[in-house]
Amino acid sequence: MRADARSLLDRLGKNDFSYKEFADRFSDLELWPLFEALLKDPRLFQQEVVATTHADMPADLPAAAPVIPATATPTLAGARPAEPTPPAERAPAPSGAETLADLFSRYEAGAGGSTRHGDDVRAMLRRLSELDARGEL
Amino acid sequence: MPMIVCHSPKGGAGTTFLAAHIALGLSEMEAGQGTAGDVTLLTLSPYDSMPLHFGLQPAQRLPALGTPADAAVLAAGIGLYSEPDAAQDARLIDMLADEGFLTPTGERVLIVDVPAGDRLVARRLIRHATVHVCPLTASPDCVALLPQVLEDTETSGAGETAFVIGRLDETKRLARHVAAFSREILGSRLVAKIRQDQSVPEAIAMLQVLSRYAPSSAALADAQAAAQAIGAMIASARGGEETPAAEETASPGAALAKPSTSRAA
Questions:
Q1: Is residue B263 part of a domain?
Q2: Residue B187 lies in a domain
Q3: Are B160 and B251 in contact (CB under 8 A)?
Q4: A-contacting residues in B 136-175 (Cβ below 8 Å)
Q5: How many other C-beta atoms are found inside a 10 Å radius of the C-beta of residue A124?
Q6: Which domain holds residue B249?
Q7: What number is the ipTM of this complex?
Q8: Which of A22, A49, A121, B200 is the most buried (most CB within 10 A)?
Q9: Which of B171, B180, B189 is closest, CB to CB, to A26?
């Protein structure tokens, strides 16, 4: 490490820098078709079910993270993503909220039973945006 | 002796670096606890760079397992060994068992660094491992392998699988997005990320261990966090109390459950 960087870190009382680009929006994830293609692979969804059924979630994820409101995905499949709504404007999860396990169980049911793939992908991306906005990602 | 197998589906994920620093971290944790346990690091790569991560000379050759103690190579209290022909050795598992390396509740820990290309020998070892550490890169070609990797972990027979994102360059938008996507998919099975850090190759070029060359290295701090998470998983497998040092990162490790068990639940 260069001496000037070391000096700055010492003055800041830190050991290293952590890069942060505040303008980053994880709704941009949808710009990468690879992610959407991967989310259509049932092997991934089976594993997601396993991951979300663990009793202990990572400490940096909110307890409500696995819950996706079933009615909170108004964007039509194939449309470009809308700007993420500020967290304060979002309605709380309804009592009939759908867990990720349920969500991906529908994926496992096959293409015939998954007419809302586009919406579900957007719901996941929106959740990433929310976590990022709260600095929890 | 619990066995930790470090194997990535893609080369260049920093597997050897991670294996070395898991060994260093576990060795320090054991020393901090005052336990009598020790750590052994075995590399199966025929083109081995493991000694460089311990500040050893590039000409340093590592002995085979079972080598008499006077010919062993010790670095930071860790026994370093090499079995470059393991892929062709049908007796590998038997040999490890004979050496007492396959007892999950033992005090000693064996860490095996398996080259990415040796998938078959990796699968043979992972079946007997307490933890399979799977380093990934935050690159699209690596994340595209996730479905296959996850399917493999379902049937691998490993006690636990811990994913680590290596060489993460957070200044690159795509790398951040791939890391976020991977984390969303892997959940608590993603136990750590290792930031890209120029200090790592610089330490190798200086023939020094990273902790001496750059004590404030970001990659070093990340690797130590990964080692603590793995240590917590080993402690859990041993059935003992988790160490205070490991408790901070115990959640990711403790949350990892054998996939088949979780599915059944």
A1: no
A2: yes
A3: no
A4: 140, 143-144, 146-148, 150-151, 153-154, 170-171, 173-174
A5: 23
A6: 3-256
A7: 0.77
A8: B200
A9: B180
